[in-house]
Amino acid sequence: MTEGNARRVRGSYTKGRAKRAEILRHAVVVFAESGYRGGSLKEIADGVGLTQAGLLHHFSSKEQLLAEVLDQRDDADQRRLDGERGWAFLEAVTELVRHNATVPGLVQLYATLSGEAVAEEHPAHGFFVGRYRRIRELMADALREAKADGRLAADVDVDATAVSLVALMDGLQIQWLLDRDTVDMPAVLEAFLARLRPR
C-alpha cells in the first residue's frame, strides 16, 4: 500500500469513527425523547444527514444501535466508579448522581428505556436485568466492606439496603426529570447514606 493510500484509509477510518460517534449522540436524544419503540432509524438518520441505508452501514440494526448506546453510557458510569471500594464507592456513587444532574438527556434515556424494558420481548430487557443485578451486587459489596471498616452501622441489612439504594436512585431520577427545581438528587442520596453511619 502506498503512503497516499494509507493516508486515505486512515482518513476514511477516522471519518467513520466520527460519524458513528455522531450517530450515537443523536440516538441518545431520539431514544430519550421517544423511547426505543417510538424513536425511528429514519429520525436518527435525518438528524445526522444520512439515509437509513447510510446509517445501517455504521450500525447493522436498530437493536445494535440501542445496545451500543446503552453500553456507552454504562462504560462512562463504570469509569467514574473504578477503583473505589467500601464507603469511598458509595461517595463516588453520590458524585455520579451529581454528574447525572448535568446530563438530563442521558438520565431521560435511562428512565425511558428501563421502563420500556420491563417487557420481556424488549431488546434491552436482558441488558437491564443484568445491569440491575450487577449494580445491586456492587452496592452490597461496598456496604459489606464499609461495615467491616466500621463506617456502616452494625445493624444495617446489607442486601436489603443495596436494593433500597438502587430504588432510591431510580426514583430520584424520575422525580428530578419531572421537577428539577425542587428535587436535589445528590442531597437526598447523601442524607440517606448519612443515616446508615454508626451512631
UniProtKB/TrEMBL annotation:
Q: Which UniProt keywords apply?
A: DNA-binding, Repressor, Transcription, Transcription regulation
PANTHER family found in the cross-reference section: HTH-TYPE TRANSCRIPTIONAL REPRESSOR NEMR, TRANSCRIPTIONAL REGULATORY PROTEIN
Would the keyword Nucleotide-binding turn up in this protein's UniProt record? no
What region holds the HTH tetR-type domain?
Answer: 17-77
The question of whether Transmembrane is a record keyword is answered with no
Protein's UniProt name: AcrR family transcriptional regulator
Any one Gene Ontology molecular-function term assigned to this protein's record: DNA binding
Instruction: Provide the species name.
Output: Catenuloplanes atrovinosus
The family database entries (InterPro entries) matched by this protein are listed as: BetI_C (IPR039538), Homeodomain-like_sf (IPR009057), HTH_TetR (IPR001647), Tet_transcr_reg_TetR-rel_C_sf (IPR036271)
Q: Which residues bind DNA?
A: 40-59
